[in-house]
Structures are given as C-alpha cells and as structure tokens.
Design goal:
The chain is of the alpha+beta class and 189 residues long. The protein has five helices and ten strands, in the order E-E-E-E-E-H-E-E-H-E-H-H-E-H-E.
C-alpha cells in the first residue's frame, strides 16, 4: 500500500497505515478519481475565530506554539466553558500530504518526551502535531517526572487516561491554510 491508498477509501472506512489507524470521517472528490481526507474539528474559546492564527504566548503548551483544535466536540465545549462567553468555532480540516504531520496514536515514551520538550520551550519543525492531551493532572505527573520525583515507570502507572482526549496543533501558516471556517456556536452552561 502506498501513501495515496488512503485517498481511495470512503467515508466511515478505516485504514491501518504502519502503526497508525486512520478513520476517514468524510471525503471529497477531485477530478472524479482522487479523494482527500476531510475532518470536522473544533476550537473552544471565548470568541468567534473565522481566521485562525498562531499566537506566541508565555504559556507552554503540549505541542508548542500553535492553533489548537480537537475532533471531539465535547472536549471543545469543555475548553470553551473556561470563559465567560464560551464559543466553539467549527472548521473543515483538509489533510495536506505536503505538510509535516507528527501523529501520536497512543501515549508513548516518545509522546511524553515530545511534550516535556515543548513544555520546556524547545521548538520543533512540524507543521501539525496530533495526539492525546496532557491535562492538568497528567501535567503534574510530567512535572514530577522531569524533576525526578517520579520514575518513568511510576509516571505511566499514574498517567493512564480515564477518558479519551485529542488535540491537533496547527503550528505553521501553511498548516492553518488546511482549515476552512464553517460556523461557531455558544456553549450552553
């Protein structure tokens, strides 16, 4: 199977590509012979964001600087509820094979090391990074691991997620071009 085989799959089908399982949420046709993977993603915040941008802040995030979204609508709703005016912006994300996508399908030692580097301000060159979130509790475990309070093995015992999480960090301007604004809605509290 080559890298273009994924584009021949239809909506709802899945593909095992190496160790990555990709679920096709939607497809669009180009010239009646090619298909491109399209996902609906959500960004939870305090305002409508029709034109996403990358903002450099002092707060270090799991996957570094970027515009963060998720495939999980409930998670975006939760992100938005942190604000007085909880707004979720909805986008169509068209995967570009021309961009460097780093994807973590599960939490692994590599995922942990990447998050530690990003949270310590070490930049990376990836256009898009996708994987599980290190929520506040997990981040406390990561901090304890970095400071030597926990061993790697102790970290993994404590860090098992109780529910699925997901995040996509769009880290470059070309990555942001993969997003098409669809709509926004206010989350009811």
């Amino acid at each position: 199977m080559n890298r273009y085989s994924a584009f021949l799959l239809g909506c709802g089908q899945s593909l095992l590509y190496g160790s990555i399982v990709v679920v096709i949420k939607a497809t669009i046709s180009i010239n009646c012979s090619e298909r491109i993977r399209v996902l609906i993603v959500y960004h939870g915040g305090h305002c409508v964001i029709e034109k996403p941008e990358i903002r450099i802040s002092k707060n270090k995030k799991d996957f570094g600087h970027g515009f963060y979204c998720t495939e999980l609508q409930a998670q975006a709703d939760k992100w938005a509820k942190r604000f007085d005016t909880p707004i979720v912006s909805v986008y169509e994300y068209t995967l570009s094979t021309a961009l460097d996508l780093l994807k973590y399908d599960t939490i692994t030692d590599e995922w942990l090391d990447f998050i530690v580097d990003c949270r310590n301000g070490i930049p990376h060159e990836h256009a898009i990074v996708e994987g599980a979130m290190a929520n506040d509790q997990v981040w406390n475990y990561i901090a304890d691991f970095v400071s030597g309070v926990l061993t790697r093995e102790q970290f993994w015992v404590l860090a098992k997620f109780k529910h699925p999480t997901h995040q996509l960090a769009f880290c470059t301007s070309p990555a942001l071009n993969c997003l098409k604004y669809l709509k926004s809605y206010e989350v009811r509290i």
